Amino acid sequence: MPDVRKLYIGKSKLFKIYGEEIYAYLIENLLTSADLLALTTAFSHQFNNQDLIWDKTLITVSGRVHGMGRQRTMGKQRYVKIFDVSQHPDYYHQTAETVYNWTEDSARETLPPIFYKVIKIIEQLGALADEPGKWVALRSHINVHEWEHFQEAHVDQDPGLFSDIYENSRQFSVTIYLDELTLGGEFWGDTDIGFVYKPRINTALMIPGNKFVHGVNSNMDEFKRPRKAFTIRFVHVDSLYLPGHPDRCLYQPAYMDQITA
Description:
Blueprint: E1 3-11, E2 21-28, H1 33-48, E3 52-61, E4 64-71, E5 79-84, H2 99-110, H3 113-122, E6 135-145, E7 151-154, E8 171-177, E9 187-189, E10 195-197, E11 203-207, E12 214-216, E13 227-236
Antiparallel strand pairs: 1-2, 2-11, 3-4, 5-6, 6-13, 7-12, 8-11, 8-13, 9-10, 9-12
């Protein structure tokens, strides 16, 4: 069983919410040995997959319909998107009552089984466990930091997705670590106590990434190995901007119901 510890990581230095106390969750022994091996294998396949991926967008040119796609690349690319339900044409047709089940169906049907299993395990841990069925796995991407690479300081924010300003939204980013480096590659948070976490294999860190500036130090591993991890963004249904299907927004005067053939 995974071991979960709640961590105080300091007060935010983000100017909009300066002084707010920030808590994270450290999850150890996340997976069994068999599941960790399956995840590592699927991770490598996803990162090295060069196939074109249809992004559900259709365009018409000279009377012909074409599907839009994107291509995964190898080499030093640091981020590969695994899924992002907010890009699906039907996403904004959902409501707070439907989005969790709709997202669950999408993840189950499109993701490699081990990635879906990891999502279901994490939903039962830390802050997410208190409100089952209310935290949506909105998107996930692979993070591979080659030797000497780092992640810039940033705050997790997607203003168009939220019903309120991003710093007030309820969201957690969960990063699952698949290896350990001899030097560098630490996660850091810009808080008053200077939080730092050196990743260990088969652990995960759950953070409210919209509450504080954070990043990853340069990978300076003595064997020049890449730093491998992937992140899942969970957002509470109450924080999502979901107008529902357009049919519900159309103006329908009462007298229209009185028209008969």
